[in-house]
């Protein structure tokens, strides 16, 4: 059975669990604005005019769409009712709502969960105009809980794709250690990885980030053509791919030995060990029922107690259809993260575990692993980096 | 000067013209939801956390973004003020608004114009929470007028890219006439065009649509592997590409001669001539100051008077950063088109002119051309199809 069929079936069971009557996704011109949950409702196709996709608690799958999109939706074979319209979606929409008479309608908007927030404000205003004078206007709720469950709880097909994405990006990281030479720039490494990505018939799940030595620009900065590999540098590579629409996200840490060095300097080793320890300790506690912020705090405390500056991002985000999948976040309770650190970890969610410290004169010390939450713990999807990769160039 | 610099400068002059103090675009996780106007504000880069991009009537360009996105924005060299934050965007946002004290704030939402409607409803609610108790909450207006002007009025660089996109898609259409053989399926033709697209290092601006003979599924339907070219068929191909982010959108019409035929049947010729006449007559009237619906009506009336069924779409949409660019539409006053047919045609807008009629036993008779509005008329960007392409297979 294909993914869309399986995920829409899963949506039906989540609607039952949450006791929500229908999930209604309202979109238009999906080549301009692509609702992040559309992946679970459609294959690649574009929707041109305003379209409503409805999944009901009782197991119905209904689409109301522009007349010219009907043939594609029919070919997909997921929806049992497909209604094409010419001039306005309103009449058919109200007719379908009257037939179902749902007491709760989960709509595609959310304050905190970007993946559940595909409804634009203009479309919200349109929808409210359509529903004026009907009882349904009072029955709209956010689809964020539904979407957090649907995106978070990976089914077998999805886990397989993530595993494959992890495997390909691990090969890319390995290639870096073979490729890198003294005097190469951050940009040279980036280019090699983009070539590797293409050769493997995948796409990057985000622009690769290359951090070479102490002068690199930390964060989402573009690779520099001026910053070049020299002895004594830490080389951090942050690289992941999309395999059939599912993302990996991994960081590996390399150290370029200096003349006569056989082991890295003490401060580099201590940084590496601190990062590894923070990942190990937080992974040991990661299991269903924990709050996102509790896991983040474990790693954050280890870093701060070791005397390093606190990392200014979340310890772990979910991976899936997006490299930063929404819903429960292993992050601190900062305003920008909304309610996501307050959510509970669930079985079959896939998370990154990532953090960094900075080592004066050497650079950015950071590792990122990918894990899958199991019934009572978590499994690493990546082959963990437990030893610092030493480069003799 | 690069495109983003030129378009943000153009935005400043439009703000002056419309007497709007600032244009404020509020986005987050742009890999999940990509605001359609972001193209004019940023190069390829992704924005991870909540970000506000502000262009002021007085010529200031300001960004407030997550700390890790700062280096990329600095490298872009477009914004004179770049503020990085860690935990919440609110403080910096209110500070900047207090400094400017704008009396009108054009925000990225719109009921009718999808290209100006990038703000999700969740983000709208967040923004309103931030602005609670400030005077700014009453000063928010839709950015649709600003965006319609900015997207519609193409600058030289943009026109050049559209022309190149048109040229490449014309070559693709020519290739179809050389490639097609009896017994080939719609899917075969589609595959050839996708290969051609890749070979030309561009991407399709929409999935190519192939209509072969009388049994084809009309509209945005996927090409069929079962519908095969036979004598007496009309073959319509709808194919356009993105060249450096700018779209073309063209349809060409071919007829497969039957045994002994040297000219197509009368009904095919009449259909072809009706479509050509509708395009010619509407193009003659297309100029700045006309309403979109007036141009559509010219073509629609010709088709209906000739005794054909009315086409159930707009005569012409704009092309640009999207193949269906928003703003003024040459379309009928149907609810789904909102206010766009009521808008005025302006100089330097690029439109398609497209319509179809159906010919019993032969198929879909449709042509689509691309035009650029000039000071007092319009120029064809495509080499018009004025003769039916006859295939002797």
Automatic annotation (TrEMBL), chains A, B:
InterPro entries: Creatinase/aminopeptidase-like, Pept_M24, Pept_M24_MAP, Peptidase_M24B. It holds the Pfam family Peptidase_M24. Signal peptide: none annotated. Residues 161-375 form the Peptidase M24 domain. This is Peptidase M24 domain-containing protein. It comes from marine sediment metagenome.
